[in-house]
Amino acid sequence: MKTFLVWIFWPFLILDTPITWGFYTHSLINRLAVFSLPEEMIAFYKPQIQYITENAVNPDRRRYAVEGEAEKHYIDLDYYGDSALQILPKYWNEAVEKFTEDSLRMNGIGPWSAYFTFLNLTKAFETKNSAAILRLSADLGHYIGDLNVPLHTTVNYNGQLTDQVGIHGFWESRVPELQAKDYPLWVGQADYIEKPQLALWEAVEEAHSKVDSVLSIEKELTKSFSPDQKYSYEERNNLTVRVYSREFTEAYALALNSQIERQMKKSVKMIADFWFTAWVNAGQPDLSEFSKELGEEEVIVPDSKIKVRDH
């Protein structure tokens, strides 16, 4: 009810609450991944590209409707200390034995969850379940995209510990919305992944290595901009909202030296690779024999009792 009242009566809204990778970006990278698939797969995926694109954001919507969904989108590596990647078992059963499932879920289970989604997609190919293939492909693309976002790997996920609240949405939504149209995001053909579980952890490790630059560059750049230069106001859906200014956004993207573009390209490539690998591991079934019916639309009803963090 509180959120409802804010939307009705407050004339200026501040877009500081992040939405993972941004609806725009998740949809874009899922769509682009389709074009990297081999001929045998693209004949099935391309007619369904609208479904893959539009349903890329369903996991985010599910966070507010399904208990246990939110922790699938991140992992707070720094909770486990500087040696997190050496301490954390890469395999779920070993991790549960060492830390307990409750503890793991409390600090995010992103890479393990993405792997389980990959296994489920493989099973869907094996059983020729077209609807499940489409749904799980869209979901897997979302989870892989999240794992390539640096701020999905840290306790300081929205700059709340460093007086940088809003940086999460800034990095993954505002910058791509203004600049992604100019990114050359073609990544070539999909490749088979020999060790998919470890590939997910390698992506997390690479993303986490960028956390310091994501935060420090924004903080340093802020010193050169007054508040009225750093922020501006835009009209969205008949509301006036405060956003990071175009000038500050462009300066930040430039200082990051194409970091966001690289992470987006990595996401597109990984998504295509994982879809392809699931198909190969399922025995490369002939997708021309599969049903061409569109996947069913998922009905997601928000549950006000579910509390999730802005991650």
From TrEMBL:
Q: Which GO terms describe its molecular function?
A: hydrolase activity, acting on ester bonds
Q: Which InterPro entries match?
A: PLipase_C/P1_nuclease_dom_sf
Q: Which Gene3D superfamilies does the annotation name?
A: P1 Nuclease (1.10.575.10)
Name of the molecule in the record:
S1/P1 Nuclease
